[in-house]
Structure to design on (290 residues):
């Protein structure tokens, strides 16, 4: 696990550096004819560095905002807090901040601002429909993502490789919520989403398709009860995991696909392009063999 965490930490650093360099190169090419090579290079480096810092500092917050996440108080969600308290110790991680999304869909995800600074967000549908053993299983699954720094690496991927679709969803939501001054940015990023297939391809290239299956197995190692994880995934399979909010770029963060066949989310026409999850049936079959 330590080797995997080190790998994911290096991977996140490489993504941030690559993001800064690519953006600096684009700015340099666009401005060199107007201000000369030296100033263009300086401007490019500054903009690239600021963009990379912003992606790291504000990426997780943007994902939570677009997802409609709200802090989960201990008074209102005591079972959720108690489970996470105990499992965080068992998984060997710093206890994440807890959030909820008001949605009947049964789903959960984690994001990270930095290693050790994570947030776990569950839908109200998941908290309501899963029994204690099933909820323990999915929380353990997510905490193993945290321990392996997959959550951190995946958040960086969304904030860099998926920055355009994330900002398209973020600015669109801001305009819908009354921040009309952001409509030029919403229009700009909306136009850039004509390249949605490119962004989706890049996100798939930076996402490990086996990640969820491996986290299922690591979660079982924490709970020591394979039937609990299998039962949780059965519940997800037999109910809806669709969430009516969230960014297309962050779809791979969820434990199961947040998209539906008739998805009415923002950008539904391109939603399927961002699908990365293996079928739940395959994940359940693996657990049944344990």
């Amino acid at each position: 696990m330590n080797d995997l965490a080190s790998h994911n930490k290096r991977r996140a650093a490489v993504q941030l550096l690559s993001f800064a360099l690519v953006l600096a190169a684009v700015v340099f090419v666009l401005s060199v004819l107007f201000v000369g090579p030296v100033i263009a290079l300086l401007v490019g480096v500054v903009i690239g560095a600021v963009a990379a810092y912003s992606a790291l500092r504000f990426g997780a917050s943007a994902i939570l905002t677009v997802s409609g996440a709200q802090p989960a108080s201990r008074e209102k969600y005591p079972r959720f807090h108690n489970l996470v308290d105990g499992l965080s110790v068992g998984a060997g991680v710093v206890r994440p901040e807890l959030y909820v999304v008001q949605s009947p869909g049964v789903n959960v995800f984690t994001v990270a601002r930095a290693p050790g600074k994570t947030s776990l967000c569950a839908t109200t549908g998941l908290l309501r429909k899963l029994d204690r053993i099933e909820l323990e299983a999915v929380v353990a699954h997510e905490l193993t993502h945290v321990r392996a720094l997959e959550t951190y690496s995946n958040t960086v991927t969304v904030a860099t490789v998926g920055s355009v679709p994330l900002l398209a969803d973020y600015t669109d939501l801001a305009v819908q919520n009354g921040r009309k001054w952001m409509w030029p940015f919403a229009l700009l990023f909306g136009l850039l989403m004509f390249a949605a297939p490119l962004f989706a391809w890049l996100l798939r290239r930076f996402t490990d398709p086996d990640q969820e299956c491996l986290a299922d197995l690591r979660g079982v190692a924490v709970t020591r009860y394979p039937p609990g994880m299998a039962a949780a995934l059965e519940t997800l399979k037999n109910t809806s995991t669709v969430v009516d909010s969230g960014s297309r770029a962050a779809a791979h963060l969820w434990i199961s696909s947040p998209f539906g066949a008739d998805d009415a989310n923002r950008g539904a026409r391109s939603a399927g392009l961002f699908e990365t999850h293996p079928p739940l049936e395959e994940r359940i079959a693996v657990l049944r063999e344990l």
